[in-house]
């Protein structure tokens, strides 16, 4: 009789990429999320980094229920591009900066549970943005990781991103620290492109006018030289200018 040896079955652990929950509560919150995402993706386009929005961040291998979905997170030293979700143990890097677009309905989760979690996994900066100013009077509040945990950021500077953050209506305005230049939001891209195109066209027209002026002067000089040559053929050299 053949003995049957029981074998242990291995099951693949599934890490879902969606849970069917809405992205955000209101249009203002959705707009703030995707504006922040677009601006930072453009800013970091040539860096070894990725920017993700409202995607699951898994922080404990083997425990798919231990997850969080930051509104926007920035991760450095990883392959650029999108992911369906982000597993810290697979990528080898913890997000450096996280933004939560907060509201009274998410206040407790954002200010307590998520703040403790992000501090625990050592996210360097955690920013809370309340686009309607419903519970954060100043609308924007940031924390930076220090020796004693998260410390309130009082100058609205992101040391990690090397950007200065300002409130501009219901979005965050981002300004480069090296040259003060503003990072344009998507709504500003088309007007900026149009203005740059008009400037380029005006510069092209100016250059063309300058070219035509130079050609006219060259032609006039050639005509004068031709007249002078004809004069010399008929009358000889021009009389000397004698001054007494």
UniProtKB/TrEMBL annotation:
Gene3D superfamilies: tt1808, chain A
Stretches for region Disordered: 195-220
UniProt keyword terms in alphabetical order: Endonuclease, Hydrolase, Nuclease
Biased composition range(s): Basic and acidic residues: 196-220
A Pfam family this chain is assigned to: Uma2
Stored InterPro entries: Nuclease_put_TT1808 (IPR012296), Restrct_endonuc-II-like (IPR011335), Uma2 (IPR008538)
GO molecular function, one term: endonuclease activity
Domain Putative restriction endonuclease: 19-167
UniProt name for this protein: Uma2 family endonuclease
UniProt source species: Limnofasciculus baicalensis BBK-W-15
């Amino acid at each position: 009789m053949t003995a049957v040896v029981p074998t242990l079955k291995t099951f693949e652990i599934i890490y879902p990429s969606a849970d069917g929950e809405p992205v955000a509560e209101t249009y203002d919150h959705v707009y703030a999320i995707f504006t922040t995402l677009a601006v930072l993706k453009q800013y970091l386009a040539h860096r070894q980094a990725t920017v993700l929005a409202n995607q699951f961040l898994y922080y404990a291998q083997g425990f798919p229920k231990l997850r969080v979905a930051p509104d926007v997170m920035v991760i450095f030293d990883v392959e650029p591009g999108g992911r369906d979700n982000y597993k810290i143990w697979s990528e080898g890097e913890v997000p450096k900066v996280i933004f939560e677009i907060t509201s009274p309905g998410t206040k407790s989760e954002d200010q307590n549970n998520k703040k403790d979690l992000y501090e625990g996994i050592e996210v360097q900066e955690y920013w809370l943005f309340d686009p309607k100013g419903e519970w954060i009077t100043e609308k924007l509040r940031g924390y930076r990781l220090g020796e004693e945990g998260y410390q309130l950021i009082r100058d609205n500077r992101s040391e990690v991103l090397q950007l200065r953050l300002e409130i501009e209506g219901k979005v965050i305005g981002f300004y480069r620290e090296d040259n003060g230049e503003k990072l344009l939001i998507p709504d500003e891209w088309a007007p900026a492109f149009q203005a740059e195109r008009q400037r380029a066209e005006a510069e092209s027209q100016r250059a063309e006018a300058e070219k035509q002026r130079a050609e006219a002067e060259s032609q006039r000089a050639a005509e004068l030289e031709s007249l002078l040559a004809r004069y010399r053929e008929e009358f000889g050299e021009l009389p000397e200018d004698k001054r007494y």
